[in-house]
Specification:
The protein has 208 residues and is mostly helical. The chain has helices spanning 5-9, 25-41, 47-51, 64-78, 81-96, 104-124, 130-136, 151-158, 171-207.
Length: 208
Amino acid sequence: MAVDKSNLRRGKAPQNTAPRRFKVRYVFYFAFALMLVLSILSYSGSDYSTIVGGSDAPPHNWIGNLGAYLSYWLFICCGLATYVLLGVLALAVIRAFLPGPANRTRFFTGAVMIMLGAMLLFAMAPETFASISDKLGIGRSGAARQGLPGGVIGQALAAPQIEELNIHDGLIRRLIGPVGTMVSGWALLFAGLVMIYLADFHQFVKAQ
């Protein structure tokens, strides 16, 4: 195989552009990703009573009890940003079919930034997403400000104050205010997308 001497003179390692070989473990990765997607899409707020033993009815989740548990805790921790996770998983699947080595560290970092940015933005305005939160079992329409559209993570970082419960603003919101929190959320979201694009997709777009 020929080596690009100009890259060696510049101190750069030659890029590996050979097609990636299919490996059996990819089947299990795709199967797990598909089950995760299906468990999120089929999540029902009523499944909580089933998984904690309050109801004998089987869960509505397409992946059964495991899917109900997994999706429940995802919505509790991340709120509506769980749906954003579906987009991140779609990018990961698309990248898996592209040739060349994947930059998993940058992709994971970008994914975390996207998720965190989404949680901040959802948590900032619980009233806006009150009806959706109520259907998912992470809030009540009658107490909109107490909902968790950004999950408990977003709640701790960016949720507005709830005076009647003596709950203070989220940590980031307390430090830089609602406008600064919104700017931070969009910045994280955009920066995460750019990081994933530059790490794994830019070389293929440039080659077209």
